[in-house]
Amino acid sequence: EVQLLESGGGLVQPGGSLRLSCAASGFTFTNYAVSWVRQAPGKGLEWVSAITSSGISRYYADSVKGRFTISRDNSKYTLYLQMSSLRAEDTALYYCAKGICGSSASCLSFDYWGQGTPVTVSS
Amino acid sequence: DIQMTQSPFSLSASVGDRVTISCQASQDISNYLNWYQQKPGKAPKRLIYDASNLETGVPSRFSGSGSGTDFTFTITSLQPDDIATYYCQHYDNLPPTFGPGTKVDIK
């Protein structure tokens, strides 16, 4: 059974940093691109970032470029999102989502999602 | 970036009704389109991929059609368990973007 378990969310002050993790199981993590998708309270879904199966290529939404860094440790089956210079508008539930293949934009069809970890940016 | 629009924003229908949601892409995305169902407090669940393929285990009352820029999602006979928000999403290129969602309720 595919499982994605996010952790690391919490309350942080504007300008602060936070590191999210997503532990994967039930599939060969090293074969798939994975993404972070967020959902602000009462709002829709927003893709945040993706990383290819090898970790070589990383992609970001314009809204987080230069502030967020995606990475993965294939030996630990874990995805990360390092978030810095956080703003109030980054407040959201952050989901980890599995792509359907390894390394192209057309892989970013999300067949499995975690339950999300909440991030609140407030003073 | 490709913009995804959906209509209606919300709808209320009776049990057994046929429900149709439209999704339009700002440029040709071939059939690189998903439909997700999100129930309150839950993660999104993919129902349809490649515009018209039903995810394994998803009831056959759900279907999708279309290609290029215009897509349709249909529930042939609305059930109480279908109360949710439905999102379309393209994956033709980067960034993958979602439609704003359509909230479906029971009348």
Explain how this protein is built.
The complex is a heterodimer of chains A (123) and B (107). Chain A is mainly beta. Helices cover 0% and strands 47% of the residues of chain A. Chain A contains no helices and 11 strands. In chain A, strands 2, 4, 5, 6, 9, 10 and 11 form a 7-stranded mixed β-sheet that branches. A 4-stranded antiparallel β-sheet of chain A has the order 1-3-8-7, with no helix packed on it. In chain A, a hairpin with a 6-residue loop joins strand 5 and strand 6. Chain A is globular and about 40 Å long. Chain A starts with a strand and ends with a strand. The mean pLDDT of chain A is 97. Chain B is mainly beta and 107 residues long. Chain B is 0% helix and 49% strand. Chain B has a 6-stranded mixed β-sheet with strand order 2-10-9-4-5-6, with no helix packed on it. A 4-stranded antiparallel β-sheet of chain B has the order 1-3-8-7, with no helix packed on it. Chain B starts with a strand and ends with a strand. The relative contact order of chain B is 0.35. The mean pLDDT of chain B is 97. The interface between A and B is medium-sized, with 22 and 25 residues.
What's the topology here?
The complex is a heterodimer of chains A (123) and B (107).
Chain A: E1 3-7, E2 10-12, E3 18-25, E4 34-39, E5 45-51, E6 58-60, E7 68-73, E8 78-83, E9 92-98, E10 112-113, E11 117-121
Parallel strand pairs in A: 2-11
Antiparallel strand pairs in A: 1-3, 3-8, 4-5, 4-9, 5-6, 7-8, 9-10, 9-11
Chain B: E1 4-7, E2 10-13, E3 19-25, E4 33-38, E5 45-49, E6 53-54, E7 62-67, E8 70-75, E9 84-90, E10 102-106
Parallel strand pairs in B: 2-10
Antiparallel strand pairs in B: 1-3, 3-8, 4-5, 4-9, 5-6, 7-8, 9-10
Structure, briefly:
Chain A is an all-beta fold. In chain A, 0% of the residues lie in helices and 47% in strands.
